[in-house]
Design brief:
Shape: elongated
Number of strands: 14
Number of domains: 2
Number of helices: 5
CATH topology of the largest domain: Rossmann fold
Oligomer: single chain
Distance between the termini: 49 Å
């Protein structure tokens, strides 16, 4: 049985995780073979898409992509501002990537946008977009179990074109993730700054109504403690990583100020500008 990585805006809640896992085990051929891990996201589809992209890349680079299913579930019902009947959400997609990873989940916002170029085949599973508020437990778990048990040929799927997935505006940058240290991971890459800024220059960073000067360095520790820095981080492609923004600090001296504090607690999905 393939392993399943579950990225969801409900994954921070162990109660919810166990309900999903119980349903998944119930549909699995052998519940003793089940391997599910959970990664917590937020209701931001930029956040979920960013995490999904990183999980795909890490699995392709260091893991076993042919033995992996990634299930994402962030669907804040952004497709309408009206009344939602039967808790209807976005269509459930199953994407087969060039690396043979299967990625599935609701097509809400930018959930699939970061991995769109890697999709070789795309399918919808019709009929499971409504009927229960907790679709992951009540509807999606059976489909994911079938994928994990190599039973994708038995699913009644309809192939569709990847154009149904929202495209990213590559001139707009976002906060992709904020880690447990308060470091702000962005969707700005090293290549985006080429020819614009050199190392050791000051870059103006704006998030919301807050603008700060950050020193552009080649790593998090490339400046002195207490200085706000922007630097190639640990996410994104090795040859062209995403930039992070934070304060270099000495934990043993009680320095608790971080990038998150400097920008007044922004959220994943917020727009970030540099100049």
């Amino acid at each position: 049985m393939k392993k399943v990585i579950c990225i969801a805006d409900w994954a921070k809640d162990s109660y919810t995780n166990q309900e999903f896992q119980t349903a998944f085990e119930g549909f699995a051929k052998n519940p003793n073979d089940v391997r599910v891990t959970f990664v917590s996201s937020t209701p931001s589809t930029i956040h979920t898409g960013y995490i999904l992209n990183q999980m795909v890349y890490t699995e392709e680079r260091l893991g076993r992509p042919t033995e992996t299913i990634i299930f994402q579930n962030t669907d804040p019902r952004i497709q309408t501002e009206g009344v939602v009947q039967s808790a209807e959400g976005a269509q459930f997609l199953i994407a087969h990537l060039a690396s043979n990873i299967y990625v599935c989940g609701p097509n809400a916002g930018f959930d699939f946008s970061f991995i769109k170029p890697q999709i070789e085949e795309l399918f919808i599973y019709p009929g499971i977009e409504k009927g229960t508020q907790f679709r992951s437990r009540d509807l999606f778990s059976r489909v994911i179990a079938h994928l994990a048990d190599y039973m994708e040929q038995e699913l009644e799927l309809e192939e569709i074109h990847p154009s149904v997935i929202a495209a990213l505006d590559h001139e707009t940058f976002y906060i992709g993730h904020i880690d447990n240290y308060g470091n702000i991971k962005t969707t700005i890459t090293v290549d985006d700054l080429k020819g614009i800024h050199e190392h050791d220059e000051i870059v103006k960073v704006t998030i919301g109504s807050v603008t700060k000067d950050a020193r552009y360095v080649d790593n998090m520790f490339g400046s002195y403690p207490g200085e706000l820095v922007i630097y190639p981080g640990s996410s994104g492609r090795v040859e062209n990583p995403y930039l992070e923004v934070t304060v270099r600090r000495n934990f043993d001296k009680g320095e608790l100020r971080t990038g998150m504090h400097e920008f007044q607690n922004p959220k994943p999905g917020d727009i970030i500008k540099i100049a």
